[in-house]
Amino acid sequence: MPKTVDDVMSRNPIVVRTETPLKEAIQILAERRISGLPVVDDAGQLVGIISETDLMWQQTGVTPPAYIMFLDSVIYLQNPGDYERDLHKALGQTVGEVMSKNPITISPEKTVREAAKIMHDRHVHRLPVLDSAGQVIGILTRGDIVRAMAADQD
């Protein structure tokens, strides 16, 4: 019988809230040696995820979008909305300002194979695992999948 997400996920993951100060989230990631945290609202519902990638904006800053001037008009070569979003991430002070919204999730009864395909196809490193009420009950990382594969080799 194929292994399910429930068999290999990390249970009771550390979560943060949107109002959690960014410094606190950075401390958790560094001390626990993890690369991302689910973000929940006051009801415990998943609203986002904060990862090392989101935090890189704090260090790298933001480059304004390229544009050209033509007949006294500014023509942006990139979407200026992306610039505003990136600027917000670079200047953010709370998890809610920096997190990625609408993360891809998975349910515990899905197979590890299905989870691996989602992670590969969507280029994500972790999947929050939600129960039927939308509560975060675990997190599945690429490392969890590799460990499950190694256990199958024994």
Keywords:
7 helices; CBS-domain; about 150 residues; three-stranded antiparallel sheet; about 25% strand; 9 strands; alpha+beta
Detailed description of the structure:
There is one protein chain. With 154 residues, the chain is α+β, with helices and mostly antiparallel strands. It has one domain: CBS-domain (Roll), CATH 3.10.580. The chain has 7 helices and 9 strands, in the order H-E-E-H-E-E-H-E-E-H-H-E-H-E-E-H. The protein has helices spanning 5-8, 22-32, 52-60, 80-91, 95-98, 112-122, 142-153, and strands at residues 10-11, 16-17, 36-40, 46-51, 67-70, 73-76, 100-101, 126-130, 136-141. Strands 2-3-4-7 form a 4-stranded mixed beta sheet. The chain has a 3-stranded antiparallel beta sheet with strand order 1-9-8. Strands 5-6 form a two-stranded antiparallel ribbon. Helix 3 (52-60) crosses helix 4 (80-91). The longest helix has 12 residues, at 80-91. The radius of gyration is 18 Å and the shape is globular. The two termini are 16 Å apart. 23% of the residues are buried. The mean pLDDT is 83.
